[in-house]
Amino acid sequence: MVRINFLTKISKKKLYYGLLAVGLSVGIIGITLAQHNRPQAVVEESLTVRTAIVGDVNRDITGYTYSGEVRGRYESQLAFQVTGKIIKRNVQLGTAVNTGDILMQIDSRDIQQTVNSSSAQVASAESQLKLAESNLYRYRQLLETGAISRAQYDQYASSYEVAVAGVRQASAQYAQGSNQLDYSLLRADKPGVVSSIVAEAGQVVTAGQIVITVVQDGEREVEISVPENRIEELRKAGQIKVAFWALPNVTVNGSIREIAPMADQTTRTFKVRISLLNPPSEIKLGMTAAVTIDDNTQPTINIPLTAVYQDGNTPKVWVVTENVLALQPIQAGNIGNGTIQVISGLRQGDRIVIAGVHKLKEGQKVKFDGDSL
What we know:
By secondary structure, this protein is an alpha+beta fold. It has four helices and 24 strands.
């Protein structure tokens, strides 16, 4: 009996430990299965993208510089009013002249002979008038006494009127000849400086042929030639700066005074006059000038076309901030040479993706490489 109880006790102890071992094994197996069935955390790999950093903000400046020449606001292109041979030139380039100064003279001998002939015709006409007047006086007395008829008197009255008209005609011809004689002298009509001489002594010139140009005293301006595709930009210019080759330290503000209505037939460019605002006295006629046009538009940035992400009406770019992607709307401008202007939406220092933009998504982590734009 004692043996049986001892065995019973041993069996219960073994049974207890056996059950404990089985329980532990089941728990371990359960924990293992639970860990095996638990969803594993997804480790997102960073994608390497090609990027570029937005550099200095550029200004969309017309940036065109035109060469020009300092000219006078008013220029007198002088010519003789009669045809003849130049026998004398009294001025040189740069000569200062006053109103009425004689600049050139043409041979007036033929004109003088014409004046002499007209003078003789005047004398002849006046003699005929004197005779007609005497006859009219005598025949008026005869008419009053009834010695002649009214018809005879009217003939002498008519002859007197013809003589009067003859004197007027001869006098007009003489005055015209005198004017022609005066026209043989080319005079300055305004005070100024001789800027051009295109005829010399011994040359035969025709009436109206320009021989001398006088720049009148007063305002100064610069004349430039502008191609037709830049005229509208020139009209909208916000600022015009004029520099001078001979005066490297002088820059003057300018304003558009005149744009030629037609292009030059030879160069196919438009003549434009730029008025100089408060020019210094050092600026002289004929100086070479450089006119720079600034249309004063908004600051812009140029980025590659491949950086633009278009999923609607608004263009966007991917901006990388702390290795995370974010879409940034932009206002686009002109397109050219594989780039596009960004008027607003980006700032200096922004890092943007410039390749594979349609394969990316918002909030994605990336690695990057690339240089500044």
